[in-house]
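Final report, Chapter 2: Outcomes

The project's central promise was a pipeline that accepts a single protein chain and returns its three-dimensional structure in a standardized token representation, suitable for archiving and comparison. That pipeline is now operational. To close this chapter, we reproduce one record exactly as it appears in the project archive, with the input sequence first and the structure output second.
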Amino acid sequence: MSQDAERMFPIVIRQISAFCHEHANPELVTKYSRYFREGYDAFGLNDKQVHELADSIADGFSLDTMSLFPLGLQLFQSGKYEFGSIAILLLEKQAKHFDESCLEGVRNWFDAGVNNWAHSDVLCTRITPLFLQNGIVELNAFDEWRSSVSRWTRRAVPVTMLCLRKSHNPEALLSFIDGMMGDEERVVHQGLGWFLRELWKLHPNVVEAFLLKHKDHCARLIIQYATEKMSAQMKQNYKKTKAVRSKK
């Protein structure tokens, strides 16, 4: 990253801040805050305004791909919801320039910046899958993400893997998340359950065997999400055994 790019950061952030204050809508903040258990520190911009702002920043400043990672981290660490959204949109515009080193920049956002499910899932459906789908990295590039101190980084693993469910061996995918089934964080449970539910639609037998293996010790929320589309009768198979319940 050049020093010229770094010197632009305060100017970029001031322009973003000015636009957000000018278009703030407390009613939208109230409307959407109920969806965020972690809190929702936002200005209340609508989607059109956020995209307009991102386009303005992209057109007005010469920000290359690598300069977006430190800038984006500052935006995420501000705590303002729209600031994080702008970071993601700016990075998405640079997707054709992604290489292996860019994945580490994205991980740094997760480790030290991302703090809500919405930003996490946008990154995991529109950014991280590109590294796998375009052959920039293999799945093992996410090895260390599984043990990150950040729950959002860990959640990113199964949610990113949704892009592989139609193209990869299901046993290999399940093996990759096997050690995560004991995770203690709710947001990770939700990500794992989401992935398992979608993989089950394609490979029911394999996923059902995996769930039977873990049903007595993994979080019930994983099972709840994973079995959501199963019949009531099938769901009975994934209740904890009486012996396990009695020890609680």
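Archive annotation: The radius of gyration is 20 Å.
This record, like all others produced under the grant, will remain available to the consortium after the project formally closes.
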